[in-house]
From TrEMBL:
<dbReference type="Pfam" id="PF04832">
    <property type="entry name" value="SOUL"/>
</dbReference>
<dbReference type="InterPro" id="IPR006917">
    <property type="entry name" value="SOUL_heme-bd"/>
</dbReference>
<dbReference type="InterPro" id="IPR011256">
    <property type="entry name" value="Reg_factor_effector_dom_sf"/>
</dbReference>
<protein>
    <recommendedName>
        <fullName>SOUL heme-binding protein</fullName>
    </recommendedName>
</protein>
<comment type="similarity">
    <text>Belongs to the HEBP family.</text>
</comment>
<dbReference type="GO" id="GO:0020037">
    <property type="term" value="F:heme binding"/>
</dbReference>
């Protein structure tokens, strides 16, 4: 799991955390589609093959949490969205991660960033993710966030029945503070 530090929350009523993440490496794949669950499943299968050895030098890589999915919504209500599903690359592999053999899988570096995270339980359906993301966006109305995309994050195996950890994220938009 990526390390982060948590900012002091100023209001007891906040239902989110402000987290500061250092630069990190992720293995990712993009899926274009209409349904979050289907895109996440397709992406997960591609990435699972990578960690099982579909890489050069055909070595297994530790499964990590969370499975993060970046969602860039389509232009309209019936347009396809772009889903980028990502697995965190653990520090022991981050310096020189195995090269993916699937052309749809790639290694990327996430910059150091501030993420606002809202946590919830259960096995959410697509509309529940959207509902939590909308709630978080409303709570962050006084913050500078990038509203062009948002993330879902799942921390548990699909076989875990209770005390599941899910999150939605927005990234702080530091550029919004710049006056150029």
């Amino acid at each position: 799991m990526p390390v982060y530090t948590t900012a002091e929350n100023s209001k007891e009523s906040q239902t989110y955390e402000e987290r500061h993440y250092p630069e990190s490496k992720w293995v990712s794949t993009k899926v274009v589609g209409m349904v979050h669950k289907d895109a996440r499943s397709t992406g997960f299968r591609r990435l699972f093959k990578y960690i099982q050895g579909a890489n050069e030098p055909s070595e297994k890589v530790e499964m990590t949490a969370p499975v993060a999915t970046k969602i860039v919504p389509g232009a309209g209500p019936n347009c396809e969205s772009t889903f980028t599903v990502s697995f965190f690359i653990p520090p022991e592999n981050a310096e020189n991660p195995p090269k993916p053999t699937d052309p749809d899988v790639f290694i990327e570096t996430w910059p150091a960033q501030t993420i606002y995270a809202k946590q919830f339980g259960g096995s959410p359906k697509d509309d529940e993710y959207v509902s939590h993301a909308q709630e978080l966006a409303q709570e962050l109305s006084d913050k500078n966030i990038n509203q062009n995309y948002w993330f879902t994050a799942g921390y548990d195996s699909p076989f875990k029945m209770f005390n599941r950890r899910n999150e939605v994220w927005y990234v702080k938009d530091d550029k919004a503070n710049n006056t150029q």
